[in-house]
Amino acid sequence: MLKPDTLYPRSLQQKTVLFLLVPVFLFLTLAGFSGYRAMRALLLDQWGETALANLEKAAHQIDMQLHRPRQILSLLDGLSEKESASGIDEFIVERLSRLDGVVNVLVEWPEGGRNNSIRFMHRGTNRSWNKSWRFQNNKSMFDISSPVYDVKHGSETVSMVTDLIDKKNRTVGKVEVILDFKSLIAQTVQAPWWSIYQAFIVDQKGNILVDTNNNMDNTSIQQTGSFATSGILKQKTLNMLRDQTSGTVFGPGRPPEEVSGFYRLKEAPWTLVVIAPGDKILQPIIHFRKIYFLSSFLGIGVLLLFMRMMISRTTNSIKKLSQTAGDLAQGIFHEPLTVNSYDEVGELIRNFNTMTSQLQRGVQLQEAMAIASEVQLTLLPHEDYSENGLEVSGLSRYCDETGGDYYDFFRSCTHPEKFHIVVGDVVGHGIGAALLMATLRALVRANIDQPGTPEALIAKVNRQLFLDTASSGNFASLFYLCVDADACAIQWVRAGHDPAMLYTPETGKLIELDGKGIVLGLSEDFQYQTNSLALTPENSVLLIGSDGVWEAENAQGEQFGKERLKDLLRNSAHLSPRSLLNTITEAVDDFRKEVPLADDITLVAVSIDGKKLLCEV
Fold first, then answer.
1. What dihedral do alpha carbons 480, 484, 488, 490 form, nearest 10°?
2. What is the DSSP letter of 74?
3. Strand partners, 390
4. By C-alpha distance, which of 127, 131, 128 is closest to 172?
5. CA–CA distance, 509 with 504 (Å, rounded to integer)
6. Are residues 461 and 508 in contact, defined by beta-carbon separation less than 8 angstroms?
7. C-alpha to C-alpha distance for 159 and 146, rounded to whole angstroms
8. Is 405 helix (H, G, I), strand (E, B) or coil?
9. 208-211 own/partner pairs: CB under 8 Å, 24+ apart
10. E strand or H helix at 607
11. CA 277, CA 426: separation in Å to the nearest integer?
């Protein structure tokens, strides 16, 4: 069970913030961050693909210039003596010297390897061939050197060298094609990406053949030593380019500080490398990130504010509803709450207003019932009676605010020797039964002192009550008893009520005062019967009750029963009438425990001192 001092939210607004707004904020923030990371990764991939495409294009251009000499020189492979005699080999070598970028072609023969050496001068000069020996095989497997500065030509050159193989698979000479390195890479270094980023051409050992200083207006081509002398990214790139023909490498940092891409040439053991700063590559994503996070936080803020406003309306309505309900529980009624929506909360408020209105009417009715209960209690005897050998006590306990049971006892005004006792039970209980009970009491009181026998008096009451109940079908049972000191007897009329019990302790005899008679208000002309019993000097106890006493049930559905009531009467006959009634009601309460009363309980106990009563006569 949560204690009041725990951190668990107690109000609906606190729960809304903790369990709704905070999770929504975290979810949207996480989704935005994940989207940003995905966009960053996509942009890096796109840059890698673009960089590799540019490198592949540049490598292809260099490969094509390197491939042309190889392709032309391969025509020497397998020339026949007849073809050589016709000067085809001289034409091929001459054609080779005319290629763009070729600054010289040298053919060397071992000493004595041929009658006359073949001499070829620089393009544009006189050249002559003396040939008396022919070769049959040329594999044209070029070895390409690193760029070196050629003093003779005043520029950096690279050499493509291949051996000349005769038909006996002997090396008989070699051909060296000297190319202008700057012309070879001219298209590459003029490409926009070369001047935008750091670009390199490196060999497999990591030597830089040429690089650029990331300046579009000032591009310098020079050999600058080892590629991996500094920087983690360059070292990682060098390690990868030795094993792979192409790829991209990311430097440290998130996002990476630098990114490199490389592509290896097919015609030379060289690799093109480009290195770009991460902030340049990710400039769009950095700009996007600023806009994205700014708009995301603004959007999330506006969304959460809107949710807060909407939820606040709901929580405020519920809070006001709760406060009004608390006041209602204290019996404080307010004006109906204003309904501002047509959702479930609005429906709840409408139902609450309806409930409040009904409760207010119920409270008013309850107040009226309380007044009716007070009025009804005033109709019952206020004090016990004790005089002339008679002690009389009575009680009524209603299962509702008002009930249909009643009792009455009083001495006759016109015949003081007579003492009247009445116990009635109107059908049902509640306000309707209480009203009918008041009517019955008034009729009894109005007729009881009129001349006539007891059965005549009760018959008159029955006719008058019948006029009021004929249309509704209501009725009432009644037990009327008169202690007549002059006649030294008790007389009674039983109108559908359970018999009274008379117990004489000296003899131990318990009898029921029975007799014929139906309930009042059922038949207009019914003739009731007066029953009589002579008084004796012995003391006796008389008990009259309603069926709510012996029909009271416990949790098991068992009724209290008349036998328990008779045992209580025998065992408690020595008590005063008031004490006897308390003993009986306590026994009924102990029997039913928590089970509420299903019917009204009414008891009247009479103690008759026969000797004293007779002496008074």
1. 0
2. G
3. 387, 608
4. 131
5. 5
6. no
7. 8
8. strand
9. 209/146, 209/147, 209/181, 209/270, 210/147, 210/181, 210/185
10. strand 601-609
11. 103
Asked if residue 57 lies in contact with residue 92, where contact means CB atoms within 8 angstroms, the answer is: no
Buried b (16+ CB within 10 A) or exposed e, 376-389: beebbeeeebeebb
- Residue 185 has which token pair? 């890479």
Q: Which of 384, 427, 408 is nearest to 600 (CA)?
A: 427
Map tokens 């806009």 to a residue: 291
Residues contacting residue 522 through CB under 8 Å, at least 6 positions apart: 466, 475, 496
551 CB contacts (<8 Å, ≥6 apart)? 559, 560, 598, 599
Sequence-distant (≥ 6) Cβ neighbours of residue 451 within 8 angstroms: none
pLDDT of 149: 57
Alpha-carbon gap, residue 163 to 418, rounded angstroms: 160
DSSP annotation of 128 reads B
How many Å apart are CA 245 and CA 265, to the nearest integer? 8
What CATH number should be reported for the domain whose range is 379-616? 3.60.40.10
> What is the spatial distance between Cα 331 and Cα 350, in angstroms, rounded to a whole number?
20
Check: CB of residue 493 under 8 Å from CB of residue 454. Answer: yes
Distances (CA, A) of 458 to 433, 455, 495, 518, 534: 20, 5, 8, 11, 21
Residue 29 neighbours by CB under 8 Å, 6+ apart? 296, 300
Q: Measure the CA–CA gap between 160 and 145, rounded to whole angstroms.
A: 7
- 86 conformational bin, left if phi > 0, alpha if psi -120 to 50, beta if neither: alpha
Of 527, 518, 466, the residue nearest 496 (C-alpha)? 518
CATH of 63-184, one of 1.10.3470, 1.10.10, 2.60.40, 3.30.450: 3.30.450
For residues 274 and 188, the answer to whether their CB atoms sit within 8 Å is no
| Per-domain boundaries in the chain | 63-184, 285-372, 379-616
pLDDT of residue 612: 81
Residue 100 is which amino acid? D
Residue type, 56: E
One-letter identity of residue 157: T
Residue 459 contacts residue 527 (beta carbons within 8 Å): yes
166 Cβ contact partners less than 8 Å away, ≥ 6 residues apart? 135, 136, 137, 172
Average pLDDT across each block of 10 residues of the chain; the chain has 617 residues. List them in order. Answer: 52 65 75 74 75 79 81 67 59 78 77 40 35 40 64 70 72 79 78 77 83 49 64 86 86 79 85 81 69 74 73 74 76 76 75 81 75 77 90 90 86 87 87 85 89 92 90 90 90 95 94 93 92 90 94 93 94 94 94 90 92 67
For residue 236, the one-letter residue type is K
Measure the CA–CA gap between 366 and 376, rounded to whole angstroms.
15
Q: Are 520 and 475 in contact (CB under 8 A)?
A: yes
Instruction: Count the neighbouring beta carbons within 10 Å of the beta carbon of residue 43.
Output: 18
Question: How large is the angle between the packed helices 344-378 and 283-329, nearest 10 degrees?
Answer: 10
Q: What would you report as the CA-atom Rg of the chain, rounded to the nearest whole angstrom?
A: 63
Letter for the amino acid at 120? F
